[in-house]
Amino acid sequence: MTTTPLRRAVCVLSAIVTLAGAAYAQTQGMERRDNRRDNRAAGRAAKQACKAGDEKTRPECRQVKRTTKQQGRQGTTNPPAEPPAAPPPQ
């Protein structure tokens, strides 16, 4: 059973397109995971820099790390909760 060159070319082309699409697919979940990893890395770096400075206490350095991670989360899928609106004065 022989295949025609045209059929073989179509099969090869479809395989290339399929593989190229799969290689560059980035789901929203993957993007969020990458963002979380970046936020954690930035927090660790900020804490290490704080500890190297010797002028802040350990709790202060933890707060620096926490603040750094919170800033990284702004504008992503988990925005900070807004406080409830105050009732109008009567």
Can you describe this structure?
This protein is mainly α and 90 residues long. It has a domain at 29-74. It is 68% helix and 0% strand. The chain is built from 3 helices and no strands. It has helices at residues 5-23, 28-53, 58-73. Helix 2 (28-53) runs antiparallel to helix 3. The longest helix has 26 residues, at 28-53. The termini are far apart. The mean pLDDT is 78.
Helices, by number, come to 3
Residues in helix, %:
55-70%
Q: How many strands, which pairing sense, and closed or not: the largest β-sheet?
A: none
- Contiguous low-pLDDT stretches (5 residues minimum) are none
Total strands: 0
Mean pLDDT: 78
Structural class: mainly alpha
The radius of gyration over CA amounts to 26 Å
Give, in order, the helices and strands: HHH
Beginning-to-end CA distance, first to last residue: 90 Å
What overall form do the CA principal axes indicate? elongated
**What share of the residues does DSSP label as strand, in percent?**
under 5%
Give the secondary structure arrangement, pairings included.
Elements: H1 5-23, H2 28-53, H3 58-73
List keywords for this structure.
single chain; 90 residues; mainly alpha; 3 helices; 68% helix; elongated
